[in-house]
Design goal:
Immunoglobulin-like; nine-stranded mixed beta sheet; four-stranded antiparallel beta sheet; 2 domains; elongated; disordered N terminus; mainly beta; 7% helix; 16 strands
Length: 248
């Protein structure tokens, strides 16, 4: 039975009573911290950066065991996703695969030192979305001299990135693992990044012995981490691109 059906079964009077003790995350965005006032806890703080393991800190200056139960729900359907463990001021639990891109919330039942109980909510962001495309144009092939491999003198690289961390506390970075491309991301992408669309172009260098150009983009937020790795295989006959994306 979902929560709406349960409330209807209990009747309108009971629903109004429950609602008066509910405190929701009223910010339109998910984020690392939700602050509460006149509540059994001062805040809910997402300490984890994982799509599958959740850790929430529920601080209070004097109340060492403020919450009795907690769970993660689908924000759009209110369907239960995971029941969390409560250990003093820490809520922990796991989320199964299949919920990575869903907007979620933590709902905790907590009691203050006077015995007043409240139901508190804190939004969880979906895992960051990374769309990474690129094109390569090569020219001026130089044959091997017997000691050094053949290679293209001119390599032109174009890339398009669409990044969405789903919250204002996310960040992204990039690295050239093999070879060198134009700089895909700047320092402003390394903190407080909600989303961005980037297009870059310029000269690139690749490893002519390994015949590859390898670049990675990593985005992290409270909803998890997305790791995209691009590999260009380059030889005289063809240039072939591979992209792999992993979620953590």
């Amino acid at each position: 039975m979902n929560k709406l059906a349960l409330m209807l079964a209990l009747g309108l009077t009971s629903y109004n009573t429950v609602a008066s003790n509910n405190v929701y995350d009223t910010d339109s965005n998910a984020g690392r911290v939700t602050t509460f006032y006149n509540a059994p806890i001062d805040a809910m703080v997402t300490q984890s950066t994982s799509a599958y393991n959740v850790r929430i800190y529920t601080p209070h200056f004097t109340n060492r065991r403020p919450c009795q139960s907690a769970a993660v729900y689908d924000q759009n359907t209110d369907a239960l996703i995971s029941v969390l463990n409560v250990d003093f001021q820490i809520l922990t639990g796991t989320i199964e695969k299949g919920h990575e891109y869903k907007e979620k919330y933590v709902e905790a039942t907590c009691t203050d030192e006077l015995g007043n109980r409240q139901t508190l909510r804190h939004k969880l962001a979906p895992v960051p979305k990374v769309t990474f495309n690129s094109q390569l144009n090569v020219a001026n092939w130089v044959d091997s001299d017997g000691f050094n491999p053949g290679y293209f003198q001119d390599v032109a690289y174009q890339a398009q990135l669409n990044l969405d961390n789903g919250e204002p506390n996310g960040y992204c970075r990039f690295a050239n693992l093999v070879g060198e491309t134009p700089k895909l991301l700047s320092e402003r992408h390394q903190f407080g990044l909600y989303s961005d669309v980037i297009s870059v172009s310029g000269a690139a260098k690749y490893d002519a012995r390994a015949n590859v150009l390898v670049t990675e983009v990593i985005c992290k937020g409270t909803g998890g981490a997305t790791h995209a790795v691009e590999v260009w295989h380059i030889n005289e006959q063809q240039q072939r691109r591979e992209i792999s994306v992993e979620i953590f």
